[in-house]
């Protein structure tokens, strides 16, 4: 039934895995599965039912330090391993991830709530990074530079950075780890990973499969515990030479400041506030497809979600009518229902934020076309508001939920100005069939990534990252591999 929450599956079936050992309740340090000596744990719940589905250790500082020590011990041998050997291990890891795609997807839906179809897609997407970097491991090339004086050879080599740390978010719990770990391992680095406490299960399952693939002990360590303590430990440690973080701009800035004393390498994929510009000359179906994916994928809980939708006057009414009809066909409810399009939000504060944005948009003159407030618990229907004020809260903050606010504009110049009126610059989207408009807006928009007539832009072969307060560094592509490599110049004289 359209717009209705779906029924919960039987408890015995819910989240059941073909391989039960992929659902782990311990951290992974130096090739061993450990609990906290204190016995303290962190509960993990199912966002749809609210039921506790397991727990993970709340490790103490010394136990987390043991993971850093293990990565340090493993680094010399792993960094000197043949590139083709590292690539072969990554390839086996990829094969194992894809062989267990359904179990991994079920874990993701169980701890995150996203629709099972999207969870399967996340596994394939995340595995794509492992596959890509398995091949790139053997393509870390140096160079020889023509000598400036006789009798010299000038060379450049690339070396792994060293021990790295990955701090990953809850919204893509599997893919955000593979996007960081795969290039690190291809480069010859070792890693300590800290998954989000709300969704640690997918990361721990990846560790099970990495071990089976032949990844040596200490190369990957997955720790769970208090985020602030672990963050302080990683930033203060002289052993950890790089931190890769995906999360809020506020926390990213804190990590950057705390890492300054150690001059650490940083990759920061931070907050976004993506605009979608729909021009009068856009193909309507392509624009609707773009809006639906860019706004509602992952229930709107994505850093690259279209947070603000700007539509040119000539197509405004037609677009709203058609978008309302599309949204009316969406189903929201249990992620394990194959028909579900929108799953529950991750927690109640997330629901409260979306409702705050909705209330403020309507109070500021916006008109609710479909949807509304939460349907109970963490379920929120896909919602559309038209005529939103240009300075509404949802234009200034990430909504992180299935609320679409639409704002009219008149000229290309006005549209670009509205799109750029933010301190963020991660992703942006535009829909047009005019090559001149595409070229002009693509040039002028302030964003690290631009989707043109599509809302699905991320893949392992392209650089993912933003500008302005959306962070620094890139993940994916050969540029993502370079983030884990140091450049060394060698000058050989006396030849």
From TrEMBL:
Q: Known Pfam families for this protein? A: Aldedh
Please indicate which superkingdom the organism of origin belongs to: Bacteria
Q: Which CDD domains match?
A: ALDH_F5_SSADH_GabD
Q: What is this protein called?
A: NAD-dependent succinate-semialdehyde dehydrogenase
Coiled-coil intervals: none
PANTHER family per UniProt: SUCCINATE-SEMIALDEHYDE DEHYDROGENASE, MITOCHONDRIAL (PTHR43353:SF5)
Q: Which residues form the Aldehyde dehydrogenase domain?
A: 33-489
Task: Say which enzyme class the record assigns.
Answer: oxidoreductase
Which keywords does UniProt give here? Oxidoreductase
Q: What is its EC number?
A: 1.2.1.-
List the GO molecular function terms. oxidoreductase activity
């Amino acid at each position: 039934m359209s717009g209705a929450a779906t029924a919960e599956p039987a408890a015995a079936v819910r989240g059941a895995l073909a391989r039960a050992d992929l659902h782990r309740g311990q951290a992974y340090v130096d090739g061993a599965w450990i609990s906290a000596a204190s016995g303290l744990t962190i509960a993990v719940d199912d966002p749809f039912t609210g039921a506790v589905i397991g727990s993970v250790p709340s490790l103490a500082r010394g136990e987390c330090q043991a993971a850093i020590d293990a990565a340090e011990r493993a680094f010399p041998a792993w960094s000197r391993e043949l590139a083709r050997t590292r690539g072969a291990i990554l390839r086996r890891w990829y094969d194992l991830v894809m062989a267990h795609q359904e179990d991994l997807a079920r874990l993701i839906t169980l701890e995150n709530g996203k629709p099972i179809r999207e969870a399967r897609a996340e596994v394939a997407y995340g595995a794509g990074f492992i596959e890509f970097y398995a091949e790139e491991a053997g393509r870390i090339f140096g160079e020889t530079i023509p000598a400036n004086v006789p009798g010299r050879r000038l060379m450049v080599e690339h070396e792994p950075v060293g021990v790295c740390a990955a701090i990953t978010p809850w919204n893509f719990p599997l893919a955000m780890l593979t996007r960081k770990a795969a290039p690190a391992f291809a480069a010859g680095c070792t890693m300590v990973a800290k998954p989000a406490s709300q969704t640690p299960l997918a990361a721990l399952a990846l560790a099970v499969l990495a071990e089976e693939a032949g990844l040596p002990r200490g190369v990957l360590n997955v720790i769970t515990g208090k985020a602030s303590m672990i963050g302080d430990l990683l930033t203060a440690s002289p052993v950890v030479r790089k931190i890769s973080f995906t999360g809020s701009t506020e926390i990213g800035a804190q990590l950057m400041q705390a890492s300054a004393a150690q001059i650490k390498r940083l990759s920061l994929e931070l907050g976004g506030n993506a605009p979608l510009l729909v021009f009068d000359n856009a193909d309507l179906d392509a624009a609707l497809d773009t809006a639906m994916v860019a706004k509602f994928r992952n229930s709107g809980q994505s850093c690259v979600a279209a947070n603000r939708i700007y539509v040119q006057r000539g197509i405004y009414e037609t677009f709203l009518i058609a978008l309302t009809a599309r949204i009316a066909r969406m189903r929201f409810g249990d992620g394990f229902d194959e028909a579900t399009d929108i799953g529950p939000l991750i927690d109640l504060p997330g629901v409260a934020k979306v409702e705050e944005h909705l209330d403020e948009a309507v109070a500021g003159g916006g008109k609710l076309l479909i949807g509304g407030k939460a349907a109970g618990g963490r379920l929120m229907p896909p919602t559309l508001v038209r005529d939103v004020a240009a300075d509404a809260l949802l234009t200034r903050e990430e909504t992180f939920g299935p609320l679409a606010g639409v704002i009219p504009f008149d000229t290309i110049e006005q549209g670009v100005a509205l799109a750029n009126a933010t301190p963020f610059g991660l992703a942006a989207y535009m829909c047009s069939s005019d090559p001149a408009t595409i070229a002009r807006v693509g040039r002028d928009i302030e964003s690290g990534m631009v989707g043109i007539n599509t809302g699905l832009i991320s893949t392992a072969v392209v650089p993912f990252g933003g500008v302005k307060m959306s962070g620094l560094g890139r993940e994916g592509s050969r540029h993502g591999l370079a983030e884990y490599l140091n450049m060394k110049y060698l000058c050989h004289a006396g030849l």
